[in-house]
Amino acid sequence: MRHPTFAKALLVAGSIALGLGAVSTASAQKTGGILNFVVGSKIPSYDAHRETTFGMVHPLAPFYSVLIRVNPENPQSATDFVCDLCVGGVPKPTNDGKTYTFKIRDNAKWHDGDPVTAHDVAASFNNVIFPKEGVPSARKAFFRMVKSVTAPDDSTVVFDLEFPSGAFIPAVAGPQNWIYKKAILDKDGTDWYAKNVMGSGPFIFVTHEPGSYVEGKKNPDYHHKGQPYLDGFKAVAAPKMALRTQAIRSNRAAIEFRGFPPKARDDLVKALGDKITVQESDWNCVLLSTPNQKVKPYDDPKVRQALTLAVDRWGGSKYLSNIAIVKSVGGVVFPSHPLAATKEEMTKLMGYGEDMAANREMAKKLLKEAGHENLKFTLHNRGVDQPYKVVGTWLVDQYRKVGMDVDQRVQPTTPFYATLRKKKDFDVSIDFNCQSVINPISDVTKFLGSAGNNYGQYDDQPLEDIYNKLLRSGDEAEQRTLMREYETRAISDQAHIAITLWWYKINPHRSYVKGWKIAPSHYLNQQLDNVWLD
Amino acid sequence: MSKYILKRLLLAIPTLIGAALFVFLLLRAVPGDICEVRMGGEGAYVDEEQIQLCRDKLGLNDSLVKQFGSFIGGYLTFDLGESMWTGRAVTEEISLRFKLSLQLAIMTTLVAALIAIPLGVISAIKQNTWIDYAVRVFSISGIAMPSFWLGLMVILGLLLSTEWLSSVTEGRWFPDGGWMPPIEYVSPFKDPFGNFAQLIWPALATGWRYSAVVARMTRSAMLEVLREDYVRTARAKGLLNKLVINRHALRNAMLPVITVLGIEFAFLIGGLVVTEQVFNLNGLGKLFAESVLNADYNMTQQLVMLVVLLFVLTNLVVDVLYAWLDPRIRYS
Question: Could you tell me the pTM of the whole model?
C-alpha cells in the first residue's frame, strides 16, 4: 500500500499516460534548446543494418531517415504507419498483394546537400535484405517474403514479394532500416557506415566521444517542414540505472528512453512532483520459461504443461508490477494487437485460467501421471536484475507451490548465452523475446523449433506448417484464426515455452520535454523530430 | 644504475609474455563470445548464419595458435588491432580514456598522500592516545567501506544536500532536484572548474580508501624509525622535535610508503572499475569492465597488458627512488 504523501505526490505528478500515450501535445511547439538524455547501453558500430542494440539506436537514429515509420504522434498503435521519406501514405499492395510501390519525396536531402532519391532507398533495403557476401545484416530474416527491391526512377521504389504477407509492412517500418546513401554503399560498402555517419534525418552529426556521448545539431533542411524543434541533442552513455535516475533528478539529463523500474519512477515523482511526467506502456518484450526438450523429463508434454500451469500470471501481474518492469498477461502476441488473444481466448490456454488452485491441482496431477511428482531442477537465469532475477525468483516460488524442488543458477550475459546456444546443458531457462515494431507474424517465430533464437531444442513440424500458412496469409481474419491455432499448440497443447509476463515500459522524464510519446518498444519513435522543450 | 635498469627491462619481457598467454587463455576459457552477445543479447531474432559471419570477420573461428600469434604479432608490427565491439583502433579507444584515468589517478594519489602522511605521522607520534585511535578508526573505515557504496553515498549526499540548499535559496544556487557531478567528460583545458567538479568526488571517495592503506603504512614505518638509534642520538644532541621528525625520521620512513603509493598508482590507472562506473567516468576501468562483459577479447587483452606494463614500470621507478631516498642502496 502506498504512503499517503507519496500517493499525493503521484497525483500531482503531471500526466501518467497509460497505454494510449495520452500526453497532450501543445498546439504551439517551441523551438530551440538542447535535449540532454541518457542511454543505458553502448554504441558498437554506427551501422544499424548490422547491429541489434538500442544503445546505438537512441543516439544515432536522429541522424537518419527511414522509408516508413510508426506514427510518431500515435506510436501506441501497432498498425499506424506513416511515410517518412515516402509521400502519400503507406501504399496498398497490387498484383494480388505481391507488389508495393512507394513514391519518394523530392525535398529530402543528405546532410552533405545531395538529394535523396529512390535509388538510395532501394540500395539501403537491398543491403538489409540481400547483403553482399560477407556483409552482416541482422534483420535479413524478417524479409523472407521479398523477391526484389528496385528503383525504376528517381522517385519510385518497388518491392516485389514472393507471396503476400501481413509481416511485410511492419518489417519495412523497422526503426533500424536507416536509409544510406547509394553512392557511399557502392564505393565503400557498409563498412563505411560502421564508422561514419551520413544521413538525411532531422539532426546532423556533430561529434561522438566513444564511451561518453554523441552530439547532434538541427538539420535546417529537414524534409518535414518546421521540424525538428530542438537546436540539438546530447546523448550521454550511462550504463548504471541508479546514475541515470539521479541524472534526471539533478537535471543533468531530461529523459531516458528505454525505461525505469517502478521504484525509480516513484523516487523521481516523490523528489520532483509535477516537474516529472511519467509515460507508461505495454512493452513488446516478454519473459519466457523454456524447458530443454533434449533433457528428460522435459520431452514429456505433461511435464511442460505442469510447468506452465504452476505459474500464477494474473496474481504475478498484480504484485510483480510494483517491483519489476513486467505487468501484462498475454499469449504469444503483443497484448493490445488485433491478432492477440482476448482474455476469453486466453483463459482457455493451459496456465491462464484464473482459478489458480485448480491450475495447481492439474499441474500436480500431470506430474504424477508423468511419474515426476517430485520434479527437481535448476532454473537457469541471466544475471540482470530487471526483470530477469526478480521474475526468476518469483518463478522458483511458483514451481515450489506444486511440489517441485527448484533452485536457480544465475549467469552473466555472455556465459548465459553460451549455455543456451552452445552448451545446451540447462533444464529450464529464463528466456525472452524482445522486438521493435510490433509485427506478430514475425515476432512469433521465437516459438518455432527451427528459429535461431529458440533454445528449447525441439522439432514440431505441425507448428511449422501452421506458421508457414500464417506467414503467407494476406487476410486478417484468417491470420487471426491461424494465430490462435499456432498459440494453442505452442504454449498450451505442447507447452514448448511458458510465457510469464509481458514487460511494462515506464518513462519518467522532465516535464519540460514535450512532443515525445511513449511507444511499445524502446527502439521506436527515436528520431526526435517532434520533440520540443517547454 | 643504467645496467640495472636495462637488466630489469629485459626481465620484463618474459613477464609480459607470461601475462599475455595467461590473459589470452583465461578469456577463452569463459564460455560464450562477443558475436552471441552482440546478435542475440537483446532478445531479438538471431540468425545463426549472421553469428558465423560475425565470428569469421573477427577471427574467432581461427585456431587458438593463430589467434595468439596475431595478438603477439601486433606488438612486433606496432598494430594492436581493433576493438571487437566498436571496430575502432585499440590505441584510439585507450588514448581517449587514458587522460581521464591518469588525471584521476594523480588526483587520488594527491588526496591520499595529503590525508595519509600527516595522519600516519601524527598517529605514530601520539601512539596509543585517543588521536591514534581516531586515526586508526578513520583508516579502517576507509578500507572497510566498499567503493561502490561510498561512491553512491557521495552522489546521494550531494543530491540531498544541494536539494535542501536549492529549496532554501529558491533555486538560485542549485537545480530543483539537487546537484550531482557532470556525467560526461569535461576537459580540463576547456572547463577547468567543470573538470574539477567532476573528478574531485571520485578522487575523494577513492582517496579515502587509498589513504587508509598509506596512513597505516606511514604509522608503522614511523614507529619503527622513531625507535632507531640515530633518532635517539638526534634528540640527545638537543635537536628540535620537529626537525627530528621531519629530517631524520620521516624521510627514512618514506621508503615503504612510496612503494605502496607507487603500486596503488599503477592500480588506479586501470583498476577503478567500480568507481568509474558509479560516477560514469569514461576511463580505462569502465572500458575494462565493458570489454569483459562484451567478451571483447582484443580490447581486454590489450588493457590487461597495459596494466601489467604499468606495474612493471612503476616497480622499476619505485626501486630507483629507493636509491635516491636511501644512499645505502646500490644497484651494482
Answer: 0.89
